[in-house]
Amino acid sequence: MDPNTSGDPFPLVLYIIAMLFCLIGSAYFSATETAFSCLSKTRLRAMAEKGNKRAEKTLALSERNDKLLSTILIGNNVVNIALSSLGTVLFLHYSPKNGATISTVIVTVVVLIFGEITPKSVAKDMPEKIAMFSTPLIQLIIWILTPLTLFFSGWKKLLSKMFRKEVEEEAKMSQEELLMLVEEVQQEGSIDQEEGDLLKNAIEFTERRAEDILTHRTDLEAVDIETEKDEISRIFYETQFSRLLVYEDNIDNIIGVIHQKDFYNEKGITPKSMREIMSPPLFIQRGEKINDLLRLLQKNKSHIAVVLDEYGGTYGIVTMEDILEELVGDIWDEHDEVVEEFKQQSENTWLVDCAVNIDDFCEFFDLELETEAESVSLGGWVMERLGKVPEEGDHFAYETLDITVTAVDFHRVEFVRVEKIRLPEEEEKEAEKMA
User: Which tens digit of pLDDT belongs to each residue from 160-186?
Assistant: First the structure.
């Protein structure tokens, strides 16, 4: 086709006008796509509530995301292909040998600058204005291209059904990936240390079980059903607990829980019997997930759950406070004794409370266990490593740490002294610095 031939129904000027029209169309679709993807629905909603009809229509259109994007993609491809075709015909007339190459280079550069980069940059800076400006025309184009968008929507649904399982599996993020994401966001400064810890706790919350956070039976405060009320009053005063477990014969037979507010009345200790004032206990298994346990406590209007071992005996207890601390960290009140879990004694030595969680211990000393510990607490892990009932003075080395038992109570490790051992290469570096 010769653009300059007098008999040609599409002379040169019409080619140029058509190409400009296509370029404007490309810019329009690019700007519209960016505007709708960057706009603030909150701002549009606020304008719509003030009576702005255009904002109301734009907001409604932004909710039809699939149809909107399909229309923009179809329109953008049509005008870009048309522009490329017109450019090729035009340049082939002037240079039959190199016209296609020249057209490809020039059209690509022009489309990139004026049809993609420039309109998208402008739309990103003022997305609401561009989106509201584009709404009337894009609504008309959506109506015109409805048959095509319906076809592509059906094709998309077919592909989704074919690959749904694989897509869903790949879309899921593992707990490790979520934790790494929080760590990255925290390092970038988008969230602070406390917010990061709260998010990590929330991610790990669903995986925690009752046995991970319980108070072991050896640390329980419980009273026999036959205990004198004066003695119970003394225990309430000394422990500052609001609730006490009640057992019959032995600790493995928990029969109830007494609340301090029921034990006392306006005249002092209640005259009612223990069986009258105590509430029934809630029993759970060690493997109960704490998010399920939280709902169970709420449903039963209970504050304490008794954790049973595999033989039906008392293994420990979990309180509502224990569960909440997994989310927000330690909760202290004026009666709690502040315990320093890692007390530094010298540059490389710490006194560590063996009630600390083994994961917290590993994090503090930047330690990676060769095999996963069966125990939840540091004390349990120390017993695993020693392979016997611990005694004061027992010690062992693990990676860069020398660990010594410093206090034992009823065959249970209470405190250990942890000393960082210098590796040979560290000593060599230190010697080089001194030299």
Answer: 676 665 545 554 555 566 667 667 766
